[in-house]
Amino acid sequence: xxxxxxxxxxxxxxxxxxxxxxxxxxxxxxxxxxxxxxxxxxxxxxxxxxxxxxxxxxxxxxxxxxxxxxxxxxxxxxxxxxxxxxxxxxxxxxxxxxxxxxxxxxxxxxxxxxxxxxxxxxxxxxxxxxxxxxxxxxxxxxxxxxxxxxxxxxxxxxxxxxxxxxxxxxxxxxxxxxxxxxxxxxxxxxxxxxxxxxxxxxxxxxxxxxxxxxxxxxxxxxxxxxxxxxxxxxxxxxxxxxxxxxxxxxxxxxxxxxxxxxxxxxxxxxxxxxxxxxxxxxxxxxxxxxxxxxxxxxxxxxxxxxxxxxxxxxxxxxxxxxxxxxxxxxxxxxxxxxxxxxxxxxxxxxxxxxxxxxxxxxxxxxxxxxxxxxxxxxxxxxxxxxxxxxxxxxxxxxxxxxxxxxxxxxxxxxxxxxxxxxxxxxxxxxxxxxxxxxxxxxxxxxxxxxxxxxxxxxxxxxxxxxxxxxxxxxxxxxxxxxxxxxxxxxxxxxxxxxxxxxxxxxxxxxxxxxxxxxxxxxxxxxxxxxxxxxxxxxxxxxxxxxxxxxxxxxxxxxxxxxxxxxxxxxxxxxxxxxxxxxxxxxxxxxxxxxxxxxxxxxxxxxxxxxxxxxxxxxxxxxxxxxxxxxxxxxxxxxxxxxxxxxxxxxxxxxxxxxxxxxxxxxxxxxxxxxxxxxxxxxxxxxxxxxxxxxxxxxxxxxxxxxxxxxxxxxxxxxxxxxxxxxxxxxxxxxxxxxxxxxxxxxxxxxxxxxxxxxxxxxxxxxxxxxxxxxxxxxxxxxxxxxxxxxxxxxxxxxxxxxxxxxxxxxxxxxxxxxxxxxxxxxxxxxxxxxxxxxxxxxxxxxxxxxxxxxxxxx
Amino acid sequence: xxxxxxxxxxxxxxxxxxxxxxxxxxxxxxxxxxxxxxxxxxxxxxxxxxxxxxxxxxxxxxxxxxxxxxxxxxxxxxxxxxxxxxxxxxxxxxxxxxxxxxxx
Lengths: 858, 104
What we know:
The complex is a heterodimer. By secondary structure, chain A is α/β, with parallel strands linked by helices. Among the domains of chain A are: 11-65, Single Sheet (N-terminal domain of TfIIb), CATH 2.20.25.90; 168-264 and 306-415, Dimethylsulfoxide Reductase, domain 2, CATH 3.40.228.10; 714-855, Barwin-like endoglucanases (Beta Barrel), CATH 2.40.40.20. Chain A has 27 helices and 33 strands. In chain A, the strands form ten sheets. In chain A, strands 5-4-25-24-23-6-7 form a seven-stranded mixed β-sheet, with helices on one face. A six-stranded mixed barrel of chain A has the order 28-32-29-31-30-33. In chain A, helix 6 (156-163) runs parallel beside helix 15 (390-403) and helix 16 crosses helix 18 (507-515). Chain B is α+β, with helices and mostly antiparallel strands. Chain B has a single domain, classed as Ubiquitin-like (UB roll) (Roll), CATH 3.10.20. Chain B is built from three helices and seven strands; from the N terminus they run βαβααβββββ. Chain B has helices spanning 16-21, 36-47, 49-55, and strands spanning 6-14, 25-31, 56-57, 60-61, 65-69, 72-73, 90-96. In chain B, the strands form two sheets. A five-stranded mixed β-sheet of chain B has the order 2-1-7-5-6. A two-stranded antiparallel sheet of chain B has the order 3-4. In chain B, helix 2 packs antiparallel against helix 3 (49-55). Chain B is globular and about 55 Å long. The N and C termini of chain B lie far apart (59 Å). Classes of the chains: A alpha/beta, B alpha+beta.
């Protein structure tokens, strides 16, 4: 072969369709392979979700595949000491030895208590199988860890509450005015990044006005019509003030929508709870036409009062909207300006523009249905979530859309994730919206709140009745089990594709937690900060080396077919090249382990359930299947008999049909009401308080309030005055997951940009501190942590902020030009219960520092 | 006295629930019209309230409790109101899955 290559002979020249894995959006790609070597990656023009577009990460993926520092054989730790920077002293072993050890440890853990197995991954394509493996094993402790610390905590439970789906996004096909809070939605970030980048570009070319509210002039803000700088952690004050202007100054809100589709008309007692019909507990409303109270459903929605104060048998009863309206008066623009630094004139102007753009009262006919047409929306993400009061923050911004009647209607904020072809919201308890999803067991709905009970999972999700997960708690549960009444700890921890030491909480705390685990198994293709703690490091295959049948899919993945007339789609990954060295797909390793543990029958049953396999292709627990057979059945289950493995190997993707207007805009088709007034929070908070007090668990339940408020983060109230600058983590689209930090092309791109490996500071602020461009500076937190960096001065940062990009300051990486460069943002944070939002489990990423110049720029 | 027709339901327990009931499989005889909710009541009476707490939430199947009735997800057949049998032997698989991994 080498002779043939030396002679320049081409005996193979093919393009292989598969899916990228440089971020979780898994775009459809094709890879050019010549003589067994992958030489180029492109998008597939006709394939969703990216339709041929590929970001820098996707284009650079070959440099991860062929990285000379890849882990290529099983490695056993020989150094019993563990810690940050401690050499594991790896010894190479065979796969036989590795499997024997893995199975031995798993067997012992299962014998002791199956719950002592913990597994974590952000490899979304492997979620179904991992969940099935853990179910068969008997452990509830499966998580995606770091991914649940910051980003979606204030998004997913809110999205479920207002739409019954896992996420929401603006209707970019029809929206004319979009407010983005703390997010880079549509700018090569978030879900379906390339698809939404396309839609965002089209919307902007169509003339949609884009306003971005962010402490930093981000990629999104730099392309917006207007960037509104804001003091970190104060977006809720801005949102509530906008709504105050809309309701109390302009009188512009969608009363009809509120009456028909929300709980705004529900009568509320002085104790904050609904007034209920004594016969059956149904919430009551005031029938303005007949001048009396009536049960929900017995009164025409249009006759129910939004305002007023009524007396019913000596009990004062107020429509929820009346309370909301009065509550908003606390957020006069002048007050909000003090909190946010956004001028009151700007707040009033934006409110006015929103009201105008929303076209209250207008309708649009789409495919024979008359819909409310509200082409204005507000969306949000991590910048709003990652705070002590993340849930209240997210709810507040959601309510802007609600007030405008712009939820799940054309032009507004619409459902997205997990909203596959069979999904649809419906009416639940108290008439509130619930997710009517036959795949309901793929998410944990926060409405109605779940029962608070003794935690069994290490994640302690039982203490978070209105959240959808509580991943931040897992390592605190590991560190302090006695504090939370946990009777066991982890014995074995398996992780793949989640570099939680670098991306979760304070690595000092994370490291202590990992040290508590007697046996840790990492599957990885590169050494990183987390594998440094492993006892057994197994070579994971690269995405271009593995077969994974269901990758981008509408039942778990975000923004599959984001807009009406888009295609529901599946794509998959197939091997383009042989695995490097002895690398194996980690799920195939776990399948082998399951077989050796006699768990295959249970795993198959669990997988049938988790993946919703159709009856005719389900796995028979009495048989054994090859991985290819499982893949084929799984694909046929979702895509039909004619779209099995062979089809996907040739085409790489499959379209299932178009998303309909009913699926995009379900609001007018069901009766489930959205809570503007969060009455269900009161009972949930009381339950949590009762339980935690009974079990002596110190716990803050103050945020379980029915009307959202702005509350400052601890950094805003506890930092001494000299710590005068907020540090904000800034997204870099081509350096996201830490695997991108292993890529020499992407790291070079970062160096060349001049904006990544330094710390951004407002130019005027810098001048005031005697700092010039290129100076070496030192950041110090109130707890005494110090970090050195090079200053980059810019107008594009709020004067009270510093911008620390991406996940940098890496200490274990194959890339010499990245190691130690930049500031590791997560190291700035405190990681304890006091810094958590006890409703959403978000870790507060608000931190203040003081800055001094260390040395002058050269 | 009229005897109600009965059917045999073979139950497989997977996951945490296996430990709770102390077995992987069991067969029960139930009236033909028994729903999933009725079966769960019967199992709770036999194995205790904790079983109900694992399988039920807010009057419905819990998010992480997946039940297959003759291979089909009970949620697509009416949830707790799903009939177990059409007159012939029935197979029910009760799986307690860990929390969903969505989000981030």
